[in-house]
Amino acid sequence: MIKKFGFQAYTIRDLMQTPEGINDAFGKMKALGYDEVQTAGMRCVTPEEYAKIAHDNGIKIIGTHENFDNMRADPEAAMAMHRVLGTTNIGVGGMPMDARENADTCRRFCEQANKFAEIIAKEGFKFTYHNHYFEFVRVDGNKTMMDIMFEEFDPKNISFCLDCAWVQNAGADVRYWIEKLEGRVDILHIKDVYWKKDNPKDYLMPASIGDGNMYWKGIVDSAEKVNVKYYIVEQDNNFIDGDPIKAAARSAKYIKENLM
User: Which element (helix H / strand E) includes 258?
Assistant: First the structure.
């Protein structure tokens, strides 16, 4: 079962508009039982300030989502920033738009990612890739972009930040992909989803953990089997009463009562 859990800072992005807001939000998340955070950009603070706020609230930074092209252009600066943050997981939230067009552009991205990952691996860092649903589009016969990345990413230097909800949104099997990526998932995004009548979007709606349709006990069983390191709660929107802290509280309660 889960021993500790954290949050993706994107969940509370609206509360992180000032240094004081970040500190207040981090304090509330820690009080709910969140011990770790994955960044979603620094916004209004420097990496040094962000790291201090997290440290002062007893929260460990376990990874990031940063701009791939910027990091690839200056790997030394990217590593310096992550040293300040205290994490060796240098991550992106998805591939650049021009990489999503077809199999060739996806393979080109894989080549670029491998080169960047090789550079940072020499200094003890690992590149992490976060999926959405589009990676499961078939672009080469029956192969999806996810299949291509599975085959072409260097498993020594690149790991996946696997987002359970986006896998399910794509119609793929969450437990299958967790187990297929054994040894290659450092960060698991636990995000619940459900279908809403008159859904304003063409994909499943985010929900607090336990309020959707994801089979969490089975998912965690698979994740523990393959030694996933970090469980990170993320909810994009659709918060309880419009309040991300209320939504985070409900997720934390479910995790503590059912998955720990």
Answer: helix 244-258
Rounded to 10 degrees, the C-alpha dihedral 130/203/232/30 comes to 130
Could you tell me the mean pLDDT of each successive run of 10 residues in the chain, 260 residues long?
96 97 98 98 94 98 97 98 98 95 97 98 98 96 97 98 96 97 97 85 87 97 97 96 98 98
Are the C-beta atoms of 209 and 216 separated by less than 8 Å?
yes
* 3-class SS of residue 111: helix
Residue with tokens 């910027």: 70
- SS3 of 34-72: CCEEECCCCCCCCHHHHHHHHHHCCCEEEECCCCHHHHH
Give the CA angle between residues 242, 243, 245 to the nearest 5°. Answer: 155
pTM: 0.96
Angle at CA 171, nearest 5°, toward 168 and 190?
10
**CB of 100 within 8 A of CB of 106?**
yes
- Tokens linked to 250: 């409900």
What size, in residues, is the chain?
Answer: 260
Angstrom distances, CA of residue 41 to CA of 66, 182, 187: 6, 28, 17
Q: At what angle do helices 47-56 and 19-32 cross, to 10 degrees?
A: 30
- Closest CA relative to residue 130, chosen from 156, 104, 149: 149
Rounded to whole angstroms, how far apart are CA atoms 70 and 119? 15
- Here the tokens at position 51 are 């790291």
